[in-house]
TrEMBL record:
The protein's name in its UniProt record: Membrane dipeptidase
Domain of life: Bacteria
PROSITE patterns: RENAL_DIPEPTIDASE_2
InterPro entries: Metal_Hydrolase (IPR032466), Pept_M19 (IPR008257)
Length: 297
């Protein structure tokens, strides 16, 4: 089974719990990831809404340096460059929180040099760029410059966490496809972090990607959350014509997930169930091919 995950917070959690990437008690480690044939894992460097200005940037550096140390220590860890090597963890890097820029446009070039492939514009609060899902913020003049520069530097805009007004403002001036790395369908689970039908259709029309989030609160409004709840989201996205758009954005180590989907070692079972329910072609698209096609071009 090939597996391409657009979002996890494992680096932040490793640092918080003083653990390493090769073996740990978190949702993702390199050892358990060996169950995948081709594995592309996006590691997000998460910037808390408590941090702004240089403090936000310094926390990015702390996480980035930790990732570099893991890269040096683990021969089976490599940076993803559009090609997925089997028997490796092919790591794609992103930053979750545009506060990392500390309001400085030149930081984008630096992120690009450090191999960052995606920037989640906001977390839940408001920052120098736009408004997050739990804020009333809007796109700023600086935010518009940021999107233009990201597009020029080839860093993909991630709209997960953006509030809906900011999302539609972005649509007025964004020229390149963008991604919602870890968001589900609001019609199935009414949460401000999930996407409305119009947002889903807009991302589809722009040939972006949407990563299915495993967070309990984004999957269903009631417990217990069962696999059928996740399939309701997939059914919904497929009915909106998202067969070439849908991907995985687990949110592992950043969210509370169902017991039956509690780590990288459990994604094979979900895959087998998806093959049974949707057929192998659709399962392969969601699990790997859609994201791989997006990032290999
Ligand atoms: Zn998130």
């Amino acid at each position: 089974m090939n597996y391409f995950d657009l979002h996890c917070d494992t680096i932040y959690e490793c640092l918080k719990t003083n653990q390493q990437l090769d073996h740990n008690d978190l949702s993702i480690d390199l050892y358990r990831g060996q169950s995948c044939s081709n594995w592309v894992q996006t590691f997000a460097f998460w910037i808390s809404d408590d941090l702004r200005g240089e403090a936000a940037y310094q926390d990015f550096l702390r996480q980035y340096d930790f990732f570099q140390s893991q890269l040096e220590q683990n021969t089976q860890l490599r940076l993803y460059d559009g090609k997925a090597f089997s028997n490796y963890c092919n790591a794609m890097l992103s930053v979750e929180g545009g506060a990392v820029l500390a309001g400085k446009i030149e930081r984008i070039q630096e992120l690009s040099k450090r191999g960052i492939r995606m920037l989640t514009l906001c977390w839940n609060g408001e920052n120098e760029i736009a408004g997050g899902a739990l804020s009333q913020g809007r796109f700023t003049k600086f935010g518009k410059q940021v999107v233009k520069e990201l597009e020029q530097q080839g860093i993909i805009v991630d709209v997960s966490h953006l509030n809906e007004p900011s999302f539609w403002e972005l649509c007025d001036f964004a020229e390149k496809p963008f991604i919602a790395t870890h968001s589900n369908a609001k019609a199935i689970c009414n949460h401000p972090r999930n996407l409305t039908d119009d947002q889903i259709i807009e991302i589809r029309n722009r040939k972006g990607l949407i990563g299915l989030n495993f967070y309990l609160d984004f999957l269903a409004e009631r417990t217990p959350v069962i696999m059928q709840n996740l399939f309701q989201h997939i059914d919904y996205f497929l009915n909106l014509g998202c067969q070439d758009v849908l991907a995985i954005g687990s949110d592992f180590d950043g969210a509370t997930v169902p017991e039956w989907l509690c780590g990288i070692e459990t994604v094979a079972n979900l895959y087998e169930n998806m093959v049974e329910y949707y057929g192998r072609d659709i399962a392969n698209k969601i699990y790997f091919e859609n994201a791989q096609n997006f990032f290999s071009h």
